[in-house]
Amino acid sequence: MPVAKPESSDSRVIAHVDMDCFYVQVEQRKQPQLRGLPTAVVQYNEWKGGALIAVSYEARKFGIKRSMRGEEAKEVCPQVQLVQVPVARGKADLSGYRNAGSEVVSILARRGRCERASIDEVYLDLTDAAEMMLTDNPPQGMETIDEEALKSHILGLNNEDGSDVKENVRKWIHRHNADHRDKLLACGILIVAELRMQVLKETEFTCSAGIAHNKMLAKLASGMNKPAQQTVVPFSSVKGLLDTLPIRKMKQLGGKLGISLQMDMGVNTVGDLLQFPEEKLQERYGINTGTWLWNIARGISGEEVEGRLLPKSHGSGKTFPGPRALKTVPAVQHWLNQLCEELSERLCSDLDQNKRIAHTLTLHARAYKSSDSDSQKKFPSKSCPLRYGTAKIQEDAFNLFQAGLREYIGFYGDKTRGSHCRGWGITSLSVSASKIVPIPSGTCSIAKYFHGQSTSHFSSMQSSDNLNTEATLSLPSGSECYSEVNLSEPKIDFPKEESWIKDTVPDLDLQEQKDLSSTLSEKTQDGFIQEDISPLLLSGCLEQNRSKQQWDLSKDESQFKSEYKERKGKRLKDKGTYSIIELFKSYNPNPSGSFLSHEYNRTVGGTDVSSSSYSRDGEEGRREAWGYNIDEIDPSVMEELPPEIQDEIKAWMQPHEQRPNNMVKRSCTISHYFSPSKKS
Ligand code: DCP
């Protein structure tokens, strides 16, 4: 948790903008006849009319809530309009909502640093815009104040009975004797009101906002008055707001920490925290958390608005509640393939539109064992380096699932080997791609080449040879009795099927460490070394075939550790090459996933296409076949390439007669980087 910088935070102007009943608004824009009617968006699902995931404010007046099912909503309000979430690949398709969110973000980002926090939430740092307004056209001197700004709720403003609320707001904004902080907030009020009106004009969506001196307070405020309103927290009102605020309402205190504060420390409101000295909180919860708690009690938060318009990760998931739980490996694979296909599409468009690449693929699942006392055991999440291409993502995700399932079923699975009853069920599956970074600027020309060929090449790689059978899971074959598992037992819950990955995406650096330590400390029961070790470990090991089969399974722990150190050292040494190596590795179309394949080691003169292309005559042909001109390589890219590739490119750029003889042979390396290799 960030440690605050109290001295600077008072003079910032931060807004949190949250769309109102967002999915409903998106559907109402598509079907304008629904505007003004009690409407709810329902998750694709036939059971009891599906789960409500967004409810219009008109419907809320009838008591309709998000936790209800469609049929319940109809009972409460027969005229409620239920709209189904669009469906693609047998699951909810959220792309329309995501795109609508992007439309809003592009408008909000016009006045300051903008951080997209979720599918319908944005933080804005408007400090510079407010300072500028204060200099050029201060609100105190404005003759007229925009009507929308006058509708603001200013916490602490005395709106006694009978007083004209808008007039009070106007006076507050016009105050000449206000301190600098309040003057800045007054500018924030005008800027945010204007932005919200712009959003309405351009997208037809309404939103609500909180305006304060930091993110924490702005977020608290934005939910206070909805829909289509804005709430302001002047510095002088912070204490009053926090004194009575239930501790669990604070972001990050809804979970275990909040419970501990209540149970162990008797803290029920944020204000209750004020009684504890910082040292005491640090003693109990550690230095950082202790300081953070001490700060939030005083409304202090140094968390910066990150300039991020794009999501931190992409995810695709689906739940399979109750009787719909997946009970066979092929059923899981079927759904994983659907999810991976969607994920792959999104990764491609992110690459295409934003020039970003993702590095880590993670599989999450929820599962149950029907006849196991250890029913609390969670299905382990697994990660591995992400390789681009639908077939590869599908293959890797399936491998991650298999590894997770083995760990999950443990000895139980072994015991039932050969029997008909396996007794597990998967109630939710999701795949996500994280560690998304922009392609280093110098690599754009190369990326363009890869991207140009990627779609067709990768889509043609849909293979059936990656369909591992249950035998590889050490499970009995046949799936008949899976359906016999008693499914009345598992708890049926209906979380949303797909969700925007909010700030809950785990800190991957920490995750990597955890993954690594678990890899070092355990060799899985089946002798399969997990691939959810640090992706950096794998990327640092360029010569190492990533294919699991090629890991030396007999390695003991110390060998493994020393190898890790060695690879890590290499990675650090090759730091500058990391990003582009990752990029190339991701695009490496070799089905084995090997960076330096068998094919690469063949000498020139072999009959395979790639090696024959290194003859001088073949060189032009290869250039043509790639559709990529080597001369177009941005020189700045060179520094990022591994030394052997740099040598090779330099040699290519030299006049032919100056090339050292061995260069022809060495050019195999670059061919492997750049060429779409044959399927072996
Ligand atoms: N959403 C979802 N499943 C949930 C919660 C939300 O699919 N369990 C989707 C539908 C919502 C959107 O995310 O429209 C935004 O969620 P919010 O929590 O911001 O709620 P709304 O925007 O619907 O309503 P509000 O006006 O209360 O913010």
From TrEMBL:
<dbReference type="Pfam" id="PF00817">
    <property type="entry name" value="IMS"/>
</dbReference>
<dbReference type="InterPro" id="IPR036775">
    <property type="entry name" value="DNA_pol_Y-fam_lit_finger_sf"/>
</dbReference>
<dbReference type="GO" id="GO:0042276">
    <property type="term" value="P:error-prone translesion synthesis"/>
</dbReference>
<dbReference type="Pfam" id="PF11799">
    <property type="entry name" value="IMS_C"/>
</dbReference>
<dbReference type="InterPro" id="IPR043128">
    <property type="entry name" value="Rev_trsase/Diguanyl_cyclase"/>
</dbReference>
<dbReference type="InterPro" id="IPR052230">
    <property type="entry name" value="DNA_polymerase_eta"/>
</dbReference>
<dbReference type="InterPro" id="IPR017961">
    <property type="entry name" value="DNA_pol_Y-fam_little_finger"/>
</dbReference>
<dbReference type="InterPro" id="IPR001126">
    <property type="entry name" value="UmuC"/>
</dbReference>
<dbReference type="GO" id="GO:0009411">
    <property type="term" value="P:response to UV"/>
</dbReference>
<keyword id="KW-0479">Metal-binding</keyword>
<dbReference type="GO" id="GO:0046872">
    <property type="term" value="F:metal ion binding"/>
</dbReference>
<dbReference type="GO" id="GO:0005634">
    <property type="term" value="C:nucleus"/>
</dbReference>
<dbReference type="InterPro" id="IPR043502">
    <property type="entry name" value="DNA/RNA_pol_sf"/>
</dbReference>
<keyword id="KW-0234">DNA repair</keyword>
<keyword id="KW-0227">DNA damage</keyword>
<keyword id="KW-0548">Nucleotidyltransferase</keyword>
<feature type="domain" description="UmuC">
    <location>
        <begin position="14"/>
        <end position="254"/>
    </location>
</feature>
<dbReference type="GO" id="GO:0003887">
    <property type="term" value="F:DNA-directed DNA polymerase activity"/>
</dbReference>
<keyword id="KW-0808">Transferase</keyword>
<keyword id="KW-0539">Nucleus</keyword>
<dbReference type="Pfam" id="PF21704">
    <property type="entry name" value="POLH-Rev1_HhH"/>
</dbReference>
<keyword id="KW-0460">Magnesium</keyword>
<dbReference type="GO" id="GO:0035861">
    <property type="term" value="C:site of double-strand break"/>
</dbReference>
<dbReference type="GO" id="GO:0006281">
    <property type="term" value="P:DNA repair"/>
</dbReference>
<protein>
    <recommendedName>
        <fullName>DNA polymerase eta</fullName>
        <ecNumber>2.7.7.7</ecNumber>
    </recommendedName>
</protein>
<dbReference type="GO" id="GO:0005657">
    <property type="term" value="C:replication fork"/>
</dbReference>
<dbReference type="GO" id="GO:0003684">
    <property type="term" value="F:damaged DNA binding"/>
</dbReference>
<comment type="similarity">
    <text>Belongs to the DNA polymerase type-Y family.</text>
</comment>
